[in-house]
Amino acid sequence: MNYDVIVVGGGHAGVEASLAAARMGHKTLLISMLAENVGATSCNPAVGGLAKGHLVRELDALGGQMGLITDEAGIQFRILNQTKGPAVRGSRAQIDMDKYRVIARNVILNTPNLSLAQETVESLIIEKDVVKGVKTDLLNEYMASKVIITSGTFLNGIIHVGEIQKKAGRYGEERSEGLSASLKNDAKLNLSRLKTGTCARIDSSTIDFSVMEEQGGDELPSPFSFRTNREEFRANKVQLPCYIAYTNPLTHEIISSNFYRAPLFTGQIEGNSPRYCPSIEDKVSKFADKERHHLFIEPQTRDNTECYINGLSTSLPPEVQREMIHSVVGMQNAKIVRYGYAIEYDFVDPRELRHSLETKKISGLYCAGQINGTTGYEEAAAQGIMAGINAGLSLQGKEPLVLRRDEAYIGVLIDDLVTKGTNEPYRMFTSRAEYRLLLREESADTRLGKYGHELGLISDAEYERIKLKDEQIRYGAQLLEDTKFTPNKEFNALLESMDEPPLKDVSTAQQLVARKTFDVQKMLKIMPELEKFDDYIKEEILVEGKYARYIDKQSEEIQRMKKYLKIAIPEGFDFTKVSGLSKEVQEKLKSFAPPTLQAAMNISGITPAAIEILHIYIKIAK
Ligand code: FAD
Q1: What's the CA gap between 252 and 290, in Å, rounded?
Q2: Which of 122, 196, 264 to mutate to test ligand 1, by most ligand atoms within 8 A of the CB atom?
Q3: Does the beta carbon of 145 sit less than 6 angstroms from any atom of ligand 1?
Q4: What are phi and psi for residue 294, nearest 5 degrees?
Q5: Which residue from 189, 254, 392, 496 has the fewest beta carbons nearer than 10 Å?
Q6: Within 10 A of 549 (CB to CB), how many other CB atoms are there?
Q7: Nearest alpha-carbon partner for 446 in 413, 473, 410
């Protein structure tokens, strides 16, 4: 059975990888252990969030599926950090996780060039460092010159619930042993262990929501996908609330008195956990002085029969989980449907990969998703689409698509992984991106749509919409720059009516909108000609105007950085003399002795700030 591309694993990475490859015209096979779990959300029933929302919108701009499925399966939509700067706002949606899975599977099965096989891949077929295909548990051999592994948390997975340990990929699902061994022994990849965890799920009818704070969605919800019609979406989307509850000193007492049974502390778990998504036992231990922690009670489906308790991830024994949940106000009578657990699994050192996500050792073999040391559906999906695209491009004899750090969060994600590796589950943050103002969620389509279109993943009509959007924003931003106001009586009266201080000197519209207090409404009062644009275009024009100076500065910095990364580091350069670099960084540079600033940048743990300092020293040394 011959294919062009085989994708192993139908999680978020596998869904995007297989769709991208098939849509680029390549005969693709998605092999996954359980057909009904294609697109399953192992942990929280939500997509997006800070920086993760950026990834989903970038993926969408490239022609990916996650945003579209989220819009259809979503039950609540919010923009986080609304009151903060535009670069750090993030879209987040609660989803009906059952519906999400069904939609994902249906899309896969309805996509031309794409087949689905419910089997378990046991080993890779590799000849002379070139991948040829895979063998499954049913002894089928599937051949392809491109194989993408997206096996998530399943490689040699071990689940921990208190002292109980089970071999599994997710609770109730088999783990993958053969594939792990094959990656190690046949592909000679370097594998290590990581850990993640999840919370208990509660029967919603046993929760007293009346004593909890309600948290609704945005009044005007925004869809994730640029291809979803905003007006129709807003008119038709019915949203469900989540609820906020709190742990309390009693909860903490129950947890801390059972630390001795927590696999995280007893040495039972070896892999590193996600620092930014800690379990409740971790939080209680690290922040012992905190009297309470937030819990978000999130419906898992639109029927709201089962709830996810965000903030209460745990691997404590079942009876301790019951006790701690019953100590929370509103959950005294809660019935647990599924217990929380931790899972340890093998992952591939992402430094084994090129920026295309192809392994350096085995030609044609790609890895994407949690297997590369990341955590999160969005991080997985973003890598998935890039692996699918690059497998497709390679089949077409073309260069891989490598997104730059100043171009996309996806570029930051992959660059961080393949150059620096990770020793804890990697999740995306806005702080990881050096050029945040350029990488706003809303600009994802104008940044990346051209690639999606070139690859055939974005339709001509959609690309026309993107080009029009870009033109309108450019036009508006230029208008703000070109329009000047003189401080006359009439204009100052207009400003006064908006509670704005009067003008003293001639000023451009751009300078005015740069005022902290200027919003879209005020902008329209001084520039009524912008009224004709859609609301989201007006918002983008305002943002471009407000942050023009910073955006220009970042663009200049990118150009400057591009130039100076080529600069050679003199042979024998003494890194230990560079003050401003930590001892650790100095030692690292000394041992690697990079020949250029670019090579220095590629070393794990070397930040752009360190490169700036080094650049200055090299200039002085010359
Ligand atoms: P997965 O979604 O894990 O999908 C892997 C797929 O590969 C599965 O369908 C599996 O059946 C298939 N597969 C594996 N091996 C084979 C094989 N040999 N043959 C055929 N098919 C195979 N993320 C967060 O952001 N925050 C969290 O707090 C968090 N907690 C988590 C807790 C738990 C218990 C688990 C299991 C996951 C958690 N995650 C969390 C991670 C999140 O679920 C993953 O990041 C995301 O699902 C990874 O997507 P993926 O596509 O890489 O893999």
Answers
A1: 9
A2: 196
A3: no
A4: -65, 145
A5: 496
A6: 11
A7: 473
For residue 303, how many C-alpha atoms fall within 13 Å in the half-sphere facing its CB?
A: 7
* Residue whose entry in the numeric block shows the structure tokens 């945040």: 436
Q: Phi/psi of residue 129, each to 5°?
A: 65, 20
Distance, in Å, from the CA atom of 280 to the CA atom of 314, rounded to the nearest integer, reads 6
What is the spatial distance between Cα 348 and Cα 72, in angstroms, rounded to a whole number?
Answer: 33
Can you read off the two tokens belonging to residue 392? 């497709």
pTM for the structure as a whole: 0.91
**Interatomic CA distance for residues 583 and 587, integer angstroms:** 6
From the CA of 322, how far away is ligand 1's center (Å)?
26
Separation between Cα atoms, residue 236 and residue 137, nearest integer Å: 45
CA of 227 to the centre of ligand 1 (A): 27
Q: What is the pLDDT of residue 606?
A: 78
From atom 7 of ligand 1, which residue's Cα is the shortest distance away?
A: 9
Asked if 207 and 334 count as a contact pair (C-beta separation under 8 A), the reply is: yes
Whose CA is closest to 299, among 80, 79, 74?
A: 74
Q: Which of 32, 171, 201, 279 to mutate to test the pocket of ligand 1 (most atoms within 8 A of CB)?
A: 32
Q: Report in angstroms the alpha-carbon separations of 527 from 483, 509, 542, 560, 582.
A: 9, 8, 11, 35, 50
Residues 410, 350: Cα–Cα separation, whole Å: 15
In this structure, how many other beta carbons lie within 10 angstroms of the beta carbon of residue 188? 13
Q: What digits encode the pLDDT tens for the residues 58-103?
A: 999 999 999 999 999 999 999 998 888 787 889 999 999 999 999 9
Helices (H), 444-534: 444-454, 460-482, 489-497, 509-513, 520-526
**Burial class of residue 435 in the structure, from the number of CB atoms within 10 Å of its CB (0-12 exposed, 13-18 middle, 19+ buried):** buried
Confidence of residue 263 (pLDDT cuts 50, 70, 90): confident
Are 377 and 47 contacting, i.e. CB atoms less than 8 angstroms apart? yes
What's the length of the chain?
A: 622
Tokens of 231: 């007006």
* CA distance linking residue 92 with residue 353, whole number of Å: 30
How far CA 118 is from CA of 33, 34, 367, 489, in Å, comes to 5, 6, 20, 75
Residue 275: pLDDT over 70: no
For residue 5, the CA-to-ligand 1 centroid distance in Å is 21
Residue 133 DSSP SS3: strand
CB-based contact 544:477 (threshold 8 Å): yes
ipTM, two decimals, is 0.98
% of the chain exceeding 90 in pLDDT: 78
User: Using the 8-state DSSP alphabet, how is residue 2 labeled?
Assistant: B
Terminal Cα-to-Cα distance of the chain (whole angstroms): 61
Over residues 183-195, mean pLDDT: 97
Q: What's the token pair of residue 365?
A: 């073999």
Report the DSSP beta bridge partners of residue 32: 118
Residue 179 has pLDDT above 80, yes or no: yes
Residues 6+ apart with CB under 8 A from 588: 603, 604, 605, 606
Task: Confirm or reject: Cβ of 55 under 6 Å from ligand 1.
Answer: no
Assigned token pair, 608: 């752009």
* DSSP notation for 83-111: TS-GGG-EEEEEE-HHHHHHHHHHHHHTS
Helix axes 548-564, 608-621, angle to 10 degrees: 60
